[in-house]
Design brief:
- Helices cover 57% and strands 10% of the residues.
- The protein has 19 helices and 11 strands.
- 29% of the residues are buried.
- Strands 1, 2, 3, 4, 5, 6, 7, 8 and 9 form a 9-stranded mixed sheet that branches. A two-stranded antiparallel ribbon has the order 10-11.
- A hairpin with a 2-residue loop joins strand 5 (111-115) and strand 6.
- By secondary structure, the protein is of the alpha/beta class.
- It has helices spanning 2-22, 49-56, 75-82, 137-150, 164-168, 171-181, 210-217, 228-242, 272-288, 301-315, 323-347, 355-376, 383-428, 435-452, 458-502, 506-526, 529-532, 536-549, 556-582, and strands at 32-38, 45-47, 62-68, 104-107, 111-115, 118-127, 153-159, 195-202, 247-253, 293-294, 297-298.
Length: 604
């Protein structure tokens, strides 16, 4: 029973402690950690989260010292010496033929230095050696490229001498210099170049100085046969010579003849000249190191990790690492900002616009975006690709704006066209036909369309509008004379009724009869209905009608019914109360007689 309880207690403890253990952080940072590891194929790189934790906790500006060089050249031992650590405390040191360090490692505890009055945390970085067994050249290039970009001081550790292959490996550093460090003075750079420290470890220090060795190695080699490889290396030599202000040469003797026992030896057992030169090397590194500057600002731990991820993404892009990939990565955010600037400028346009206005606005917005990109972009040669990409993205935005402009132009012109069509339909059915009112409405409609309809759809709708207005005018003219003739016949009969029974003014009645006779009898005897419309008398009647029916002051078609109602009340009032109030003198005389008056004599 006791055993059963003990097992239950252990099981409970394991279940309780497992989530705590899984979420635990690194306690001891006084050890090396991998930050970048090779993938299974040993061609590309991937991040190691374990080592990144050591960097992310740093809040000070960060600087880094990276050592690169061939495998089995003593890089790890050199870093331990710079950190004043033994082989058993610091980076692992191997004596076998295979490389000990895989990928890129970092010492977990930085050294704090006061640099230009700013407390700076300095990390030391160990890299996997070149030319080891079972690796591709592309993998070596990625290691070299990453170390070049993230370091503040790049120690190129070379045994004995400088070979041509060692120079050719610096091609990436040269490309970086040409792309990123050749900017106009005073402007921010993508990242400041690492100080290149040529470190030559020799058994004997007699003869040429290490600086002389570097100068000779960087001197151009005659190329009478125009060999492409020699020509490429000579170009690298020229570029490295130009970068001379950013490089230093230093020599270091071998620490001891028995190199396999170096880890077991103390400073007193090492060659005194080596110890002296090693201490000078420490001082030199401390004097030239500066915080890592990216886009004009120093980086803390989290920012350095983000920068590392950004660079690694670029270097793993494609089959081989290239500065072009780095340029694209660094210009990515700038490109997005410039594209956003262009998009915001175009978004403020009050669409629809004419094609000329839209093109002019596009040119201005594109010019501002390109100017902003030119001021901020990184890279000199490879930046052209980013410029092309920005242009392509701007064209995509422009196409959307053009489509939106066409849509809004079509909607606006369609609405105006429909409105004019409705107005023309209304003018076709005027209660009192008026050519003047029709022409005024047509002119107003046409003017409104010409002024308000803008954009690419205007040309298409102008044709439709012209055709519709012409058709409406032809139809109105065709019906106008016929409708006016009918209205005048009706008007003549109304005049007869008014003059005979309501107003009782014989002259009005006669005028009505004359008009009726002229329209119905006289015209039928002497003219056809169509020939009447060309007669001067008809033209006079039309002019009089137009003057009466429509003017800018009075539109009788609109006010006909109210005026008729008012006139009816006036006549009614006149007939009922006018005689009593104003006497017979105010009545129309022609129908005013005493035939039925009170003084009429009686008949016998």
């Amino acid at each position: 029973m006791d055993k059963y309880n003990t097992l239950l207690s252990l099981l409970f403890l394991l279940l309780f402690l497992s989530p705590i253990a899984s979420s635990s952080t690194i306690i001891n940072f006084h050890q090396p950690f991998p930050i970048v590891e090779p993938d299974p194929g040993h061609t590309k790189l991937r991040l190691s989260e374990e080592g990144l934790e050591a960097i992310e906790k740093i809040t000070n500006p960060i600087a880094s010292v990276a050592v690169i060089g061939p495998y089995r050249s003593g890089k790890s031992f050199l870093l331990n010496q710079l950190l004043s650590l033994s082989c058993y405390e610091g980076f692992g040191v191997g004596h076998m033929r295979d490389t000990k360090t895989k990928g890129i490692w970092i010492w977990g505890t930085p050294i704090d230095l006061e640099i230009d009055g700013v407390k700076t945390s300095v990390f030391y970085i160990d890299t996997e050696g070149f030319e080891s067994i079972g690796k591709s050249n592309v993998y070596d290039d990625r290691i070299f490229a990453l170390a070049t970009v993230i370091s503040s001081v790049l120690i190129y550790n070379l045994p004995e001498t400088i070979r041509e292959a060692d120079i050719s490996r610096l091609s990436f550093a040269v490309e970086l210099a040409e792309e990123f460090y050749g900017r106009v003075k005073g402007q921010d750079v993508a990242f400041e170049p690492a100080k290149l420290l040529w470190l030559i470890q020799r058994d004997f220090l007699q003869g040429k100085s290490v600086q002389q060795m570097v100068d000779e190695a960087l001197r151009q080699v005659p190329n009478t046969d125009r060999d492409k490889n020699i020509d490429m290396i000579n170009q690298i030599r020229d570029s490295l010579a130009i970068m001379g202000d950013n490089s230093t040469a230093f020599s270091l003797p071998q620490p001891h003849l028995q190199r396999t026992k170096l880890c077991d030896l103390k400073d007193g057992d090492l060659d005194p000249s080596y110890v002296k030169k090693r201490d000078k090397l420490k001082e030199l590194v401390s004097s030239i190191i500066r915080p890592k500057i990216v886009q004009g600002k120093s980086l803390n731990g989290k920012e350095f990790v983000a920068f590392l991820k950004q660079i690694l993404e670029a270097l793993n892009k494609g089959e081989i690492p290239s500065t072009g990939s780095l340029v694209e990565i660094f210009n990515k955010d700038i490109l997005e900002r410039c594209l956003k600037l262009y998009s915001e400028k175009m978004a403020t346009l009050d669409l629809p616009l004419t094609e000329e206005s839209l093109q002019s606005s596009h040119d201005r917005a594109r010019g501002e975006a390109m100017h902003a990109f030119d001021q901020q972009h990184f890279g000199r040669h490879h930046a052209k690709k980013s410029v092309t990409q920005l242009d392509e993205e701007i064209d995509k935005v422009l196409k959307n704006v053009v489509l939106k402009n066409e849509y809004k132009s079509s909607k606006l012109c369609e609405a105006l066209y429909t409105k004019c069509e409705d107005i023309m339909d209304q003018l076709q059915v005027l209660k009192l036909p008026s050519m003047a009112k029709f022409n005024a409405g047509l002119e107003k409609c046409n003017h409104t369309f010409e002024y308000d309809c803008v954009g690419p759809s205007k040309v298409n709708y102008e044709g439709r509008m012209k055709k519709m207005l012409g058709k409406s005018k032809s139809l109105f003219i065709k019906e106008y004379n016929h409708r006016l003739f009918n209205w005048l016949v009706t008007f003549s009969l109304v005049t007869v009724v008014l003059g005979r029974f309501i107003i009782k003014f014989i002259l009005i009645e006669i005028a009505g009869w004359l008009l009726f006779i002229f329209l119905e009898t006289y015209t039928r005897l002497f003219w056809s209905a169509e020939s009447l419309y060309y007669n001067p008398v008809w033209h006079f009647i039309v002019a009089s009608w137009e003057t009466l029916v429509y003017s800018p002051i009075l539109d009788l078609d609109r006010w006909a019914i109210p005026l008729c109602v008012i006139l009816s009340f006036f006549i009614l009032y006149w007939r009922c109360f006018g005689k009593r109030k104003y006497g017979s003198r105010w009545l129309l005389p022609l129908y005013s007689s005493n035939k039925n008056g009170p003084n009429r004599p009686r008949s016998e």
